[in-house]
Amino acid sequence: MMPRSKRVGRFIKPEVKKVEEPEEQIKVISIPEKVSIKELAEKMKMQPSVIIKKLFMAGQISTVNTELTYEEAENIAIEYDIICEKEVPVDIIEELLKEDEDAPETLQKRPPVVCVMGHVDHGKTSLLDAIRKTSVTDREAGGITQRIGAYTVSINDQKITFLDTPGHEAFTAMRMRGANSTDIAVLVVAADDGVMPQTIEAINHAKAAEVEMIVAVNKIDKPNANIDRVKQEMTEYGLISTDWGGTTEFVPVSAKTGEGIDTLLETIILTSDILELKANPNREARGLVLEARLDKGRGPVANVLVQKGTLHVGDFISAGASSGKVRAMVDDKGNKLKEAKPSQPVEILGLSDVPNAGEVFLGHETDKEAKQYANTYLQQHKKDLIEETKAKMSLDDLYSKIEEGRLQELNIIIKADVQGSVEALKSSLLKLSNDEVVVKIIHGGVGAINESDVTLAAASNAIIIGFDVRPDAMAKSMADHEGVEIKLYKVIYQAIEEIEYAMKGMLAPVYEERVTGHAEVRQIFKASKVGNIAGAFVKDGIIKKDCKVRITRDGEQIFEGDLASLKRFKDDVKEVKEGYECGLVFDGFDSINEGDMVEAYEMVEVPRT
Ligand code: GDP
Predict the structure, then answer these.
(1) Which of 116, 121, 251 for a ligand 1 pocket mutation test, highest count of atoms within 8 Å of Cβ?
(2) The CATH fold of domain 510-606
(3) Which of 2, 30, 381, 511 could form a disulfide bond with 87, CB atoms 3.0-4.6 angstroms apart?
(4) What is the pTM of this model?
(5) Is the dihedral of CA 489, 491, 494, 495 positive or negative?
């Protein structure tokens, strides 16, 4: 035997473990919100029958498939000295988009991406226009410029990218996937109006996103402009001007006269130098979808902001559920590009579908990989959408009413060629809601009707409305199979009108009473089986087999109900007309007398007005 001291580590380890083993070991398992007995048993490394038996002893009948809540599972596990932890659901999309930081030596300087925020009417749009004009005059004037969701300007040979969508809605949408689109926020405050509610909101958004702020004090051309007042008011929100000893740049500007715009641009460059904004241009591209739409001639068009890497014509990319190969790229000045570098906004063609704004786009080595990414996204999104709808429904305070049958709902999915049409249809259709039927737009989007729309519609009993778009082949066959109704329109009012009709069909029908005839009881026959039969004479109109009756005696109503049978002599008949005799048996009424008057009526459905 080897002396103890000479033993190598490999041999020592098991011995150490052996010593520990007798010690009580507390096992920890992680389980989701809901777990079946089978799954729980697997995690606990036990036979399901043990748990089933235990529950049985506690008076609870269960099977391997019985679902337990987290708390129930926890109570069972703890009896076996097993501690439960709540399983954190994995966001597959987030996992998919995760990536390692680029190595520091690969990073190169990139232009800043700037957004403009501020209170309504303080001049965001005017300022963006004024800045844009500066850059157009810099270059060949009259060149075709186009809106691609962002534009770049140059000052002193340095570039700045401006997100072209004013307001912080865009800014927040861009953070959907947790990726910041913006480096610097220009906060526009009108010098004649000062800090207003949306100014504060904007400050909070920018702070939450940890974005550097520059204050543009706008409208300084106005006689009642007061720059110092703005500075004073901003101190309350921790934004102290540099000339007052703080760290925030305040730049007085006029979007109207153009005064101060150059200084604002220089300040942005200066700030971005301090921020040392960098990205690795030599890798596959990654960025954000700023806007996307369906162009009739060119197919899906996406305006994207490249954030890392370089995007080339011919690259395989995916963005949300869509994928494809970049067919062409155009910049904000209308120039055709072969490649786009970090911080550059471009319009791209070649995606299979219209992605959502705010979605991350990724470059891939192969077409297959791009498709795989899009597909994973689609599968995941489908689940999310369905879950989201379910959650919405149960949260909705109208839901209880619907369950009671007092209210019905019409779920609608809208797909259109442009966002504008989606919005127009949405607002018109929502207005159709009335006391009895609620219209709910459970999803609206740009692009062809696809598989995920149909899945959602099937899951939530919705109809799909396509405006100037068609279902793709997969969606169509799936809709046929699932019995999902797809309605296609080219005119908005037609869509609205049809839905309105559909809703009328959903409304509880309105019935109206219509008297069909009268009969007089002239004789009573006793029949052992059916009770008394009234031998009657039809005085006017007609008595039908399925009619309802009212019986009056000396002008007073003594019965109202159904006719149980109608006879001519011994035969059952459908109807008996004026001038004929008949035998009547009433449902639940036997004490008829000679001379009683019978009024026959029926309930007819009348169209709603
Ligand atoms: P937004 O709602 O923040 O986008 O504001 P707009 O850009 O639409 O501007 C609101 C109004 O203020 C418009 O009537 C503009 O013409 C006006 N405006 C914007 N900037 C200036 C400015 O620097 N001076 C003056 N006098 N008016 C301005």
Answers:
(1) 121
(2) Elongation Factor Tu (Ef-tu); domain 3 (2.40.30)
(3) 30
(4) 0.58
(5) positive
